[in-house]
Amino acid sequence: MSDRDRFSHQLFEALPIGLAICHMDGRLSYVNEAFALMIGYSVEEALKLTYWQVTPIDYEKQEQAQLASLSESGHYGPYEKEYIHKDGHRIPVRLSGVLIRENDEDLIWSSVEDIAISKTAQELKAKTEFLETTFENMADGISMVDADFNIVAFNSRFLELLNLPKDRFHPGDPFESFIRFLVERGEYGSGDVDEKVLERVNKAKQFESFHFERTTTDGRILEIRRQPTLGGGFVTLYSDISDRKTVERALRESEAKFREFAKISSDWFWEMDADLRFTYFSARNKEITGFDPDIYIGKTRREIRYGTDDDENWKQHLQVVDEHREFRNFEYDLMIAGGKTLTISISGNPVFKADGSFDGYYGTGRDITVRKQAEKKLSESEHQFRSLFHQFPTGVTLEDYSQVKISIERLASEGVNDLAKYLEENEDVLKSIVLEVEVVDANDTQIRMFGVNTLEEYKKYEADNDLWADTSWRRFYIGELVSMASGASTFTAELHDVTADGTAIEIRCTSRVIKNPANDWSVVISSHEDITARKLAEEQLLEQATIDFVTGLPNRALLFDRLALAMEHARREQRNVCLIFVDLDHFKQINDSRGHVAGDQLLEKVGQRLSNLIRQEDTVARLGGDEFIILLNDVELPSGPEIVAKKIIDAFINPFDLDGDETFATVSLGISIFPDDGEEAEILLQNADAAMYKSKRSGRNTFRFFTPGLNDQAEHHGRIAERLRHALDRGDLELYFQPVVDIAGDRLASIEALIRWNDSVLKAVDPEQLIKVAEETGFILPIDKWVLAEACVQVAAWRTGVAPQLQLSVNVSNAHFRSSDLVESVRGVLADSGLPAAALTIEITENLLMDDSVQILDRLRELTAMGVKLALDDFGTGYSSLAYLKKFQVDTLKIDQTFIRDIATNDGDLALVDAIIAMSKSLGLTVVVEGVETPEQLELLKARGCHLIQGFHFSHPLSVDEMTEYLADEKTGLN
Question: Which of 932, 974, 957 is closest to 791 using CA atoms?
Fold first, then answer.
């Protein structure tokens, strides 16, 4: 080693600033003591570490950016980071360095300063840079003493800090003279001068490193560091720390960090002579190869390498060496102890004598085995990534947003604060920015998704595809740009798109920013998922969720959505909304008897008929079962709802064609008005429902408006069910009888048995409500049997007295008729009462006939064979069918009172009565008209040949006693 090199080495070792030299792969080749102390290790320990072992993992991206800067410009930093101290805590530092070339190898020379105290860190950096440029102009004082104890060198700062006269000391002066001057000046306190000088000189002759602080006579505090040199003597560094006592710790840490950084710059040093034989290897080589460096001395590199000289790279390297040129990062394989093979990278610089003749090489060696293995794995990983990228089931694109970023930043500099609003109002600007996006790559799935074959074709498709007609894309671009400009990492949206052949598709696009250490978002990776099938399925599910499957009408969910909108509009505009609750009368019977197919067919036709009656802005919905809702917007009160309700009633005069069979149906309507009858959808619907039940109790085939009392009626309905449980046991039920008059013969034709209930709590209960509750609760069967038995006994008694020819009609419920013991029950009642079968007429509903079962038909035939007559009650209110009248042996049709009520004023009802009369005559059936209450009704019926009349015009239902008197009077004829 030359004197100059030794001097530099001693100087760097004595510096309090961390210095390091490392290979490009992070292996340290040199650190000074300051660097080692900075990270808490000895120099020997530090040289066993790598740069990455003392760097926290979260600085990896930052470090890569600095390495890139180093490769591009030859220097890096200054920049700030942290080191990991030996005890685990982190040390903040500022680093800077340069790329140097030595023995054809790139090395990194770095300096490290502590930045715990910003001002101190800046001063430290300045001093470090100062030391690196010139010894004389260093910020700290330096003195060097040789083995003979002479002061061989010092700088002006040394004189300044120790307040020494410039002409008092010169290079070559004895070290003792310097000590004596300080002692005499009182630097070491009072006492015998010679003793103190001897003490200080003897201590210095121990050639030990030391570090201490001393206060000078003028009050300044100096930090003094001494380091023995390899050739004997020592170097001393003097720093003025008067104004920054706290820098002591910072300087130690900075020195340790700097040493650690220097350690990672290279693995070992080597030297060659002019014959290209090794003359020197640093000890680090042994740690790498396992061999003592001495075995390499005197050998050429080709003698110790592993392999042959045949490969072209080795030949080129030998040519460079033979030509005495510098070389960098030459790689070759080297077999080390244990038979293991390493990949070595070497760099070297030629050395020439003063006369220009070649004198050998010096350089560094680096173990790059791990790096080469990593490069191989990286290459394999990149290959795998490319393979996965192109085989990924979702379309993926990489796009360059660098120009977009510039444009967004320019808008911000021009004062655009609300970027979203600005882009919405300036579509031309938005379009120009979006056109700056450059597609860098796209995987195979993305390319195929849009119907093209190559990346170039896809890029052309993207450039030509005009998406501006679709607002979803404008919203997407605005949202994406605003999101990215605000620092967000991802943005997702569902969009409409078209493929190259014009096929419409739905995609889900997620853009994800790829940020570099500078937080730059110039690169965007986007995934594109074809969700066309999913969106179609969602639409189908939405339709299924909002559309009734049977009728195709809106269901309850969609109805409530539209009702909410209608009510909100009505509140805002102070308008009215109307709900009409439509319930098919006796639907259950046709559904049970003819099957669900016919029932569904009827529901569909009812929905169509209702839809034809309303405006386009109104809604017909099916709630379920046989219940429909009509929603009327902006109705005029009170005429609007009533007009629509009457149109609905009239629309059901005509029969429905169910697979060629004409079937009549009627409806009961309930009407509620927003906001008078409720300001919430559920309340409004409940009140329309209550009004509908009022229509049913009023005889069906009519409509009723909601009134507040209807809710009370619902509560009353529940109380009836509770009291009815024990009505028979308490004997609360009684029979009434209503005459059927033959106006042609001016005589009593028959009587119909009716039930009445005068409860002790509820008082007189409406008969229709009684029957309805009994059917709902299952009490109808015992009540039915009781009525039949009691009526037969009573009529048999009258026949033996006041009315020998008296005929009896009894209603038998469908539940009773379907019971297996019906015929035997009737036969037993007749036998027990003594009433002849010919005197009994059993009234059934037309809905029973819809149950086209063998059992029902057999029971009808058995009753007829027994002599019992059959009457079809309430004809026209169910599913009236001519085919069923032909099939079953019915003797009498009873026209329901709902068709009689308005025949004097309603031509439709009168026409329907005419049709029933004509049909009955053609079939040879007897017709009984119910509900006749006025002379006008009677005259119209008489004119049409109807002579059997039942109704209040002749008589209300009578109790047993009242009927006994009536029958007595009847002997003399009708009054």
Answer: 957
